[in-house]
Amino acid sequence: MDSPAQKTAANPPPNPRILIVGKTGRLGRDLERAFAGLGPVVAVGRESVDLADPVQTRDLVRRTSPDVILNAAAYTAVDRAESEMSLAHAVNCLAPRVLAEEAAQCGALLIHFSTDYVFGGGKKEPWTEDDAPAPLNVYGASKLAGEQSIRNSRARYLIFRTSWVYGPCGNNFLLTMLRLARERDRLSIVDDQVGAPTTTIELARATRAIVSGVLTGRFGAADDWSGLYHMSCAGSVSWFGFAQAIFARASEQLGIRPPELIPIETEDYPTPAARPHNSLLSNARLHARFGVQLESWQSALDEVIEILHQRSEAR
């Protein structure tokens, strides 16, 4: 007799039931928008389930009986994780393990998002999926443990590692910069950490395209596509360069007076959690397998600024 996973792979549902975990987070909102129309969507947030409680997490999946699980929930307070290790581990490792176990049991496809912070940052070239992780902080270690728990499961899964995630909602670098510009005349920004700022909008679009293809069999059997992939916007920039780009656009479209920006090194801005100097991810495997390539970080930033502009005009 076929397992639930084998049955789902052979006969994908025409109207898949989609469970989005973490609907109020940065990514969850855009996933809910992107997946509208693919099938019935059940989106839950902290008010509905405590992911630190395995019983609640199991019950959620069993009550929902999804065909696709999108796990956009995570403990993302990087610095606070240094003193809240147990909570970070529960949300970033134990919850994904339970979701993977339940996905395997009911035959659901599990989509999970991870982070560039699984790497130590010492490499000069973009990180590939084959590079050995070496997280510098508790957050990165907890996310790596979550990846490993999914990879050790029997579930069909896609893990997307991404970097420097931001969007028009939630707590993120872009909105922090715009807020601080209204409060201060000068801002000191780290200039020796490099990455690819990636919008929640681009992540959601790419995920929808890939999941749609998987469900229709366009990418073959699960053995052909199930696994770990890097997914980030194209290009690279430092935090300082990103801030410059933000204010160049915000001054014109949002009417925000740019503060004076001062480039500093990581050692000049000590934080409880260490950050990698190089967060660039190679997206070659993602493109080769699924034909998907995210926009440049500059184009993605333009789109978010335009959304903020439209909101301000509507007020």
Quote the CATH topology of the domain at 4-167 and 196-235 and 281-295: Rossmann fold
Average of per-residue pLDDT values: 92
How many helical stretches? 11
Beta content? 15-25%
**What is the structural class?**
alpha/beta
| CA-atom Rg in angstroms | 19 Å
Give the biggest beta sheet. Answer: 6 strands, parallel
Query: What is the oligomeric state here?
Result: single chain
State the helical fraction: 40-55%
Find the count of extended strands (DSSP E, 2+ residues).
12
**Can you tell me the CATH class of the domain at 4-167 and 196-235 and 281-295?**
Alpha Beta
N-to-C SSE series? Answer: HEHEHEHEHEEHEEEHHEEHEHH
**Rough shape?**
globular
Going across the biggest sheet, name each strand in turn. Answer: 2-1-3-4-5-10
Uncertain regions spanning at least 5 consecutive residues: 1-10
Indicate the CATH architecture of the domain at 4-167 and 196-235 and 281-295.
Answer: 3-Layer(aba) Sandwich
The CATH superfamily name of the domain at 4-167 and 196-235 and 281-295 is NAD(P)-binding Rossmann-like Domain
How far apart are the first and last residues' alpha carbons, in Å?
Answer: 59 Å
